[in-house]
Design the sequence.
């Protein structure tokens, strides 16, 4: 059967206009900074990484020029200030800093985890209103102890998710063996 329109039929992969996918390794602080910048500008981390690459290649973007020159609402200086205030290599401290200093930058999953921690009693005796994102530490509270409690909860949550993934993987492997056997 002949195509009725010239050029119709199979499209070459290169002509589909899809973006390329790359995998990179960056340290935790750089990843954290990328995610915070993305949240502040209402973009995805991938869009921010692409923007950074364009900047390095010298592509001109008025928005980027404004950002570098401090004219953008989320200027480079303000962005770096927020990142430096929030960053800590200790994940419990990082989470508490986010909640206490910039709760508007939390993503939905972080809000859910905060609520789970409050309901699990992680903040009992440490915070005034544990379920509220406007919560503040009680007077005289040992914040390092609270940071460790938050980090332990997050680590336990990660371990539970890994264990669940392993269970699913083993179950899938067993089902495949049964089908082949």
Sequence:
């Amino acid at each position: 059967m002949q195509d009725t329109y010239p050029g119709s039929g199979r499209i070459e992969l290169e002509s589909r206009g899809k973006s390329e996918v790359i995998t990179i390794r960056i340290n935790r602080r750089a990843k954290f900074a990328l995610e915070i910048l993305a949240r502040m500008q209402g973009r995805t981390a991938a869009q921010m990484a692409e923007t950074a690459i364009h900047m390095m290649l010298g592509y001109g973007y008025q928005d980027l020029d404004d950002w570098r020159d401090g004219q953008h609402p989320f200027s480079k200086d303000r962005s770096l200030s927020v990142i430096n205030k929030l960053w800590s290599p200790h994940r419990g401290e990082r989470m508490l800093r986010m909640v206490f200093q910039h709760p508007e930058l939390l993503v939905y999953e972080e809000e859910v985890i905060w609520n789970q921690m409050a309901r699990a009693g992680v903040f009992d005796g440490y915070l005034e209103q544990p379920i509220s994102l406007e919560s503040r530490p009680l007077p005289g509270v040992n914040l390092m102890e609270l940071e460790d409690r938050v980090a332990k909860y997050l680590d336990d949550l990660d371990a539970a998710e890994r264990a669940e993934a392993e269970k699913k993987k083993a179950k899938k492997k067993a089902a495949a063996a049964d089908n082949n056997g």
In short: Residues 11 and 17 are 11 Å apart (CA to CA). Residues 89-181 form one domain. Confidence is low (pLDDT under 50) at residues 1-5, 7-13.
